[in-house]
Amino acid sequence: xxxxxxxxxxxxxxxxxxxxxxxxxxxxxxxxxxxxxxxxxxxxxxxxxxxxxxxxxxxxxxxxxxxxxxxxxxxxxxxxxxxxxxxxxxxxxxxxxxxxxxxxxxxxxxxxxxxxxxxxxxxxxxxxxxxxxxxxxxxxxxxxxxxxxxxxxxxxxxxxxxxxxxxxxxxxxxxxxxxxxxxxxxxxxxxxxxxxxxxxxxxxxxxxxxxxxxxxxxxxxxxxxxxxxxxxxxxxxxxxxxxxxxxxxxxxxxxxxxxxxxxxxxxxxxxxxxxxxxxxxxxxxxxx
Length: 288
Hints:
Helix content: 25-40%
Strand content: 15-25%
Protein backbone atom coordinates (compact mmCIF):
# COMPACT_ATOMS: atom_id res chain seq x y z
CA UNK A 1 0.00 0.00 0.00
CA UNK A 2 1.19 3.52 -0.89
CA UNK A 3 0.05 6.65 0.91
CA UNK A 4 0.34 10.13 -0.60
CA UNK A 5 -0.29 13.30 1.39
CA UNK A 6 -2.45 15.83 -0.41
CA UNK A 7 -1.27 19.44 -0.48
CA UNK A 8 -2.35 22.51 -2.45
CA UNK A 9 -5.10 23.34 -4.93
CA UNK A 10 -6.69 21.29 -7.68
CA UNK A 11 -3.69 21.29 -10.03
CA UNK A 12 -1.36 20.16 -7.26
CA UNK A 13 -3.81 17.51 -6.12
CA UNK A 14 -3.91 16.18 -9.68
CA UNK A 15 -0.11 15.94 -9.83
CA UNK A 16 0.00 14.07 -6.52
CA UNK A 17 -2.79 11.71 -7.53
CA UNK A 18 -1.20 11.08 -10.92
CA UNK A 19 2.21 10.28 -9.42
CA UNK A 20 1.00 7.82 -6.79
CA UNK A 21 -1.61 6.18 -9.04
CA UNK A 22 1.02 5.64 -11.76
CA UNK A 23 3.49 4.20 -9.26
CA UNK A 24 0.88 1.94 -7.64
CA UNK A 25 -0.06 0.62 -11.07
CA UNK A 26 3.59 -0.21 -11.73
CA UNK A 27 3.98 -1.95 -8.36
CA UNK A 28 0.59 -3.67 -8.64
CA UNK A 29 -0.45 -2.35 -5.24
CA UNK A 30 -3.16 -0.07 -3.87
CA UNK A 31 -2.88 3.58 -2.87
CA UNK A 32 -4.54 5.94 -0.41
CA UNK A 33 -4.29 9.57 0.68
CA UNK A 34 -3.55 11.40 3.88
CA UNK A 35 -6.18 14.16 3.58
CA UNK A 36 -5.37 15.94 6.83
CA UNK A 37 -4.25 18.98 4.81
CA UNK A 38 -7.92 19.79 4.20
CA UNK A 39 -8.74 19.59 7.92
CA UNK A 40 -6.31 22.39 8.65
CA UNK A 41 -6.97 26.11 8.23
CA UNK A 42 -6.12 26.28 4.56
CA UNK A 43 -8.05 28.02 1.81
CA UNK A 44 -7.62 25.16 -0.66
CA UNK A 45 -10.50 22.64 -0.66
CA UNK A 46 -10.43 19.00 -1.70
CA UNK A 47 -11.43 18.96 -5.37
CA UNK A 48 -10.53 15.55 -6.76
CA UNK A 49 -14.17 14.53 -6.44
CA UNK A 50 -14.69 16.07 -9.89
CA UNK A 51 -12.97 12.90 -11.14
CA UNK A 52 -13.05 10.31 -8.36
CA UNK A 53 -16.04 9.24 -6.34
CA UNK A 54 -13.81 7.45 -3.82
CA UNK A 55 -11.66 9.83 -1.76
CA UNK A 56 -9.32 6.97 -0.76
CA UNK A 57 -8.75 8.69 2.56
CA UNK A 58 -6.65 7.03 5.22
CA UNK A 59 -6.72 8.18 8.81
CA UNK A 60 -4.74 7.40 11.92
CA UNK A 61 -2.56 8.84 14.63
CA UNK A 62 0.57 7.40 13.00
CA UNK A 63 0.21 9.62 9.93
CA UNK A 64 -0.57 12.73 11.95
CA UNK A 65 2.47 12.09 14.10
CA UNK A 66 4.66 11.43 11.07
CA UNK A 67 3.64 14.73 9.49
CA UNK A 68 4.20 16.64 12.72
CA UNK A 69 7.67 15.12 13.02
CA UNK A 70 8.55 15.15 9.32
CA UNK A 71 11.61 17.37 9.81
CA UNK A 72 13.18 14.68 11.95
CA UNK A 73 12.05 11.59 10.03
CA UNK A 74 14.50 10.36 7.39
CA UNK A 75 13.32 7.22 5.64
CA UNK A 76 11.43 5.09 8.16
CA UNK A 77 8.76 5.74 10.76
CA UNK A 78 7.69 2.82 12.99
CA UNK A 79 7.91 0.31 10.17
CA UNK A 80 6.55 2.67 7.50
CA UNK A 81 8.88 3.74 4.69
CA UNK A 82 8.93 7.49 4.11
CA UNK A 83 9.66 9.32 0.84
CA UNK A 84 10.09 13.08 0.79
CA UNK A 85 10.48 14.98 -2.46
CA UNK A 86 13.68 17.02 -2.29
CA UNK A 87 13.60 18.76 -5.67
CA UNK A 88 10.97 20.41 -7.86
CA UNK A 89 12.33 18.38 -10.78
CA UNK A 90 11.77 14.71 -11.49
CA UNK A 91 13.68 12.46 -9.10
CA UNK A 92 14.89 9.15 -10.49
CA UNK A 93 14.81 7.61 -7.01
CA UNK A 94 10.99 7.89 -7.05
CA UNK A 95 10.98 4.80 -9.26
CA UNK A 96 12.75 2.88 -6.47
CA UNK A 97 9.91 3.36 -3.97
CA UNK A 98 8.68 0.10 -2.48
CA UNK A 99 5.30 -0.90 -1.10
CA UNK A 100 4.35 0.31 2.39
CA UNK A 101 5.57 3.88 1.81
CA UNK A 102 4.26 7.28 2.90
CA UNK A 103 4.97 9.91 0.22
CA UNK A 104 4.85 13.68 0.27
CA UNK A 105 5.79 16.39 -2.19
CA UNK A 106 4.38 18.10 -5.28
CA UNK A 107 5.67 15.80 -8.08
CA UNK A 108 5.15 18.33 -10.84
CA UNK A 109 6.66 16.51 -13.78
CA UNK A 110 5.18 14.63 -16.71
CA UNK A 111 7.83 11.95 -16.06
CA UNK A 112 5.94 10.69 -13.01
CA UNK A 113 2.81 10.10 -15.06
CA UNK A 114 1.52 7.03 -16.86
CA UNK A 115 -0.29 9.12 -19.47
CA UNK A 116 -2.69 6.46 -20.73
CA UNK A 117 -3.75 5.48 -17.21
CA UNK A 118 -4.12 9.01 -15.88
CA UNK A 119 -6.13 10.31 -18.80
CA UNK A 120 -8.61 7.51 -18.13
CA UNK A 121 -8.72 8.27 -14.42
CA UNK A 122 -9.06 12.00 -15.01
CA UNK A 123 -12.35 11.76 -16.86
CA UNK A 124 -14.90 14.19 -15.46
CA UNK A 125 -17.67 12.67 -13.36
CA UNK A 126 -20.21 15.37 -14.05
CA UNK A 127 -21.84 16.38 -17.31
CA UNK A 128 -21.25 20.00 -18.35
CA UNK A 129 -24.00 22.55 -17.85
CA UNK A 130 -26.10 23.48 -20.88
CA UNK A 131 -24.08 26.67 -21.40
CA UNK A 132 -20.72 24.89 -21.05
CA UNK A 133 -21.85 22.16 -23.43
CA UNK A 134 -22.77 24.76 -26.04
CA UNK A 135 -19.34 26.33 -25.55
CA UNK A 136 -17.59 22.97 -25.92
CA UNK A 137 -19.41 22.36 -29.20
CA UNK A 138 -18.22 25.76 -30.45
CA UNK A 139 -14.66 25.06 -29.31
CA UNK A 140 -14.61 21.78 -31.22
CA UNK A 141 -15.64 23.47 -34.46
CA UNK A 142 -13.07 26.31 -34.30
CA UNK A 143 -9.33 26.89 -34.39
CA UNK A 144 -9.68 27.35 -30.64
CA UNK A 145 -6.83 28.55 -28.44
CA UNK A 146 -7.07 28.70 -24.66
CA UNK A 147 -5.06 31.43 -22.94
CA UNK A 148 -4.77 31.31 -19.16
CA UNK A 149 -3.66 34.33 -17.14
CA UNK A 150 -3.19 33.71 -13.44
CA UNK A 151 -3.16 36.57 -10.97
CA UNK A 152 -4.92 35.99 -7.65
CA UNK A 153 -2.50 34.92 -4.94
CA UNK A 154 0.47 35.39 -7.31
CA UNK A 155 0.02 39.16 -7.00
CA UNK A 156 -1.97 39.45 -3.77
CA UNK A 157 0.19 37.42 -1.40
CA UNK A 158 3.74 38.60 -0.74
CA UNK A 159 5.09 35.09 -0.17
CA UNK A 160 3.88 34.04 -3.64
CA UNK A 161 4.69 37.32 -5.39
CA UNK A 162 8.36 36.95 -4.47
CA UNK A 163 8.55 33.32 -5.63
CA UNK A 164 6.66 32.94 -8.91
CA UNK A 165 7.63 34.57 -12.18
CA UNK A 166 5.28 37.36 -13.26
CA UNK A 167 4.34 36.71 -16.88
CA UNK A 168 4.02 39.94 -18.80
CA UNK A 169 1.86 40.55 -21.83
CA UNK A 170 4.91 40.16 -24.05
CA UNK A 171 4.88 36.42 -23.24
CA UNK A 172 1.22 36.06 -24.21
CA UNK A 173 1.62 38.15 -27.39
CA UNK A 174 4.55 36.01 -28.56
CA UNK A 175 2.67 32.82 -27.70
CA UNK A 176 -0.40 33.96 -29.65
CA UNK A 177 1.78 34.90 -32.60
CA UNK A 178 3.29 31.39 -32.72
CA UNK A 179 -0.06 29.62 -32.74
CA UNK A 180 -1.98 32.16 -34.84
CA UNK A 181 0.67 31.79 -37.53
CA UNK A 182 -0.15 28.07 -37.85
CA UNK A 183 -3.96 28.14 -37.81
CA UNK A 184 -6.45 29.56 -40.29
CA UNK A 185 -9.02 31.38 -38.14
CA UNK A 186 -7.83 31.77 -34.54
CA UNK A 187 -10.49 31.94 -31.84
CA UNK A 188 -8.95 32.87 -28.49
CA UNK A 189 -10.65 31.85 -25.26
CA UNK A 190 -9.26 33.78 -22.30
CA UNK A 191 -9.39 32.27 -18.81
CA UNK A 192 -8.31 34.03 -15.63
CA UNK A 193 -9.00 34.33 -11.93
CA UNK A 194 -9.12 38.10 -12.54
CA UNK A 195 -10.91 38.31 -15.88
CA UNK A 196 -12.03 41.93 -15.48
CA UNK A 197 -8.43 43.05 -15.00
CA UNK A 198 -7.43 41.18 -18.16
CA UNK A 199 -10.24 42.79 -20.16
CA UNK A 200 -9.09 46.23 -19.05
CA UNK A 201 -5.35 45.74 -19.48
CA UNK A 202 -4.53 43.22 -22.19
CA UNK A 203 -4.27 44.35 -25.82
CA UNK A 204 -4.28 41.85 -28.66
CA UNK A 205 -2.89 44.53 -30.97
CA UNK A 206 0.62 43.28 -30.14
CA UNK A 207 -0.08 40.07 -32.07
CA UNK A 208 0.21 40.97 -35.79
CA UNK A 209 -0.95 37.52 -36.92
CA UNK A 210 -4.05 37.85 -34.74
CA UNK A 211 -4.88 41.11 -36.52
CA UNK A 212 -4.04 39.76 -39.96
CA UNK A 213 -6.25 36.70 -39.47
CA UNK A 214 -9.01 38.65 -37.70
CA UNK A 215 -8.80 36.60 -34.53
CA UNK A 216 -11.89 36.58 -32.35
CA UNK A 217 -11.49 36.83 -28.58
CA UNK A 218 -13.92 35.52 -25.98
CA UNK A 219 -13.46 36.04 -22.26
CA UNK A 220 -14.72 33.10 -20.19
CA UNK A 221 -16.07 34.30 -16.87
CA UNK A 222 -19.21 32.33 -16.06
CA UNK A 223 -17.61 29.44 -14.14
CA UNK A 224 -17.23 30.84 -10.65
CA UNK A 225 -16.81 29.51 -7.11
CA UNK A 226 -17.59 25.80 -6.76
CA UNK A 227 -17.89 25.43 -10.54
CA UNK A 228 -14.58 27.15 -11.38
CA UNK A 229 -13.07 23.74 -12.18
CA UNK A 230 -15.23 23.73 -15.32
CA UNK A 231 -12.63 26.06 -16.87
CA UNK A 232 -10.22 23.13 -16.70
CA UNK A 233 -12.52 21.05 -18.88
CA UNK A 234 -13.03 23.94 -21.32
CA UNK A 235 -9.27 24.51 -21.66
CA UNK A 236 -8.74 20.81 -22.30
CA UNK A 237 -11.29 20.93 -25.13
CA UNK A 238 -9.52 23.74 -26.99
CA UNK A 239 -7.37 22.66 -29.91
CA UNK A 240 -4.32 24.60 -28.66
CA UNK A 241 -3.22 26.03 -25.32
CA UNK A 242 -1.21 28.92 -23.92
CA UNK A 243 -0.62 28.25 -20.25
CA UNK A 244 0.50 30.32 -17.29
CA UNK A 245 3.01 29.13 -14.69
CA UNK A 246 0.06 27.42 -13.08
CA UNK A 247 -0.59 23.73 -12.48
CA UNK A 248 -4.27 24.40 -13.29
CA UNK A 249 -3.61 25.41 -16.89
CA UNK A 250 -0.78 22.84 -17.15
CA UNK A 251 -3.42 20.16 -16.67
CA UNK A 252 -5.80 21.90 -19.05
CA UNK A 253 -3.15 21.53 -21.75
CA UNK A 254 -2.06 18.03 -20.71
CA UNK A 255 -5.62 16.66 -20.89
CA UNK A 256 -6.08 18.15 -24.35
CA UNK A 257 -6.53 15.11 -26.59
CA UNK A 258 -5.92 16.88 -29.90
CA UNK A 259 -3.02 14.91 -31.47
CA UNK A 260 -1.89 18.05 -33.34
CA UNK A 261 -2.11 20.43 -30.41
CA UNK A 262 0.36 23.24 -29.90
CA UNK A 263 1.08 24.14 -26.29
CA UNK A 264 3.07 27.22 -25.36
CA UNK A 265 4.40 27.36 -21.80
CA UNK A 266 6.63 29.72 -19.80
CA UNK A 267 10.23 28.55 -19.58
CA UNK A 268 10.64 30.53 -16.37
CA UNK A 269 8.20 29.26 -13.73
CA UNK A 270 9.90 30.79 -10.69
CA UNK A 271 11.72 34.09 -10.27
CA UNK A 272 14.98 32.41 -9.23
CA UNK A 273 16.57 30.79 -12.26
CA UNK A 274 18.03 27.89 -10.24
CA UNK A 275 14.55 26.85 -9.14
CA UNK A 276 13.09 26.60 -12.61
CA UNK A 277 11.83 23.22 -13.80
CA UNK A 278 13.74 20.97 -16.16
CA UNK A 279 11.27 18.09 -16.25
CA UNK A 280 7.88 19.74 -15.92
CA UNK A 281 6.87 19.87 -19.58
CA UNK A 282 6.49 17.20 -22.27
CA UNK A 283 9.09 17.57 -25.01
CA UNK A 284 6.54 18.67 -27.62
CA UNK A 285 5.56 21.83 -25.72
CA UNK A 286 6.98 25.16 -26.89
CA UNK A 287 8.79 27.15 -24.19
CA UNK A 288 9.06 30.92 -24.14
